Every structure is written in C-alpha cells, then in structure tokens.
Amino acid sequence: MSALDRIERLPDWPARMTAPVAAAYMGVSQSTFLTRFAAIGMKEGGNTLWAKLQLDTIVAQQFNLTPIVAPSAAPAPVDEYEAWKASRKKG
To answer: Domain limits of the chain?
Structure first.
C-alpha cells in the first residue's frame, strides 16, 4: 500500500508527513518537493519528515495570506513520544 493510499483512509492530513505525502499535499511531484523543501525536513531515525503547519505557513507566505499560527494560549500538551524517549535513556 502506497503512502497516498494510506492518506485516503485518514480523516485529515497528518501533522508530520514523509516526502511522498508532503509532495501530494503541496500539489507538486516528489522530485520538485525535495528540490524546494528538502532543507526544512526534520530527520527522525531513518525518516525525513515535514510538518503540516510549516508547509501551511509556506503556502500562506506564497499567497500573501495571514500566516497560520499554532495556538499558544493553550498549555503545551505532554509529548508522550519525547517522554518515552527520555525514559529509555535513563534506564
């Protein structure tokens, strides 16, 4: 099953995307996406991921729209993944 097949099963675009999914989200080919946006990807293990919010901000800038900003008034949620990673380092 391809990345785009998996996306069709989701209710919305994921917060973090691999190159094929992020390219589809931005409406360009994967090679064009990597040429334009490879530098802003975040390495995690063997994957490079792009944040949906970051891509939305780029689109807003391209079209001179009000940038999309993550809500800052709400308390930051506990990052369970980061907590799990930290717990593994202690052991």
So the answer is: 3-90
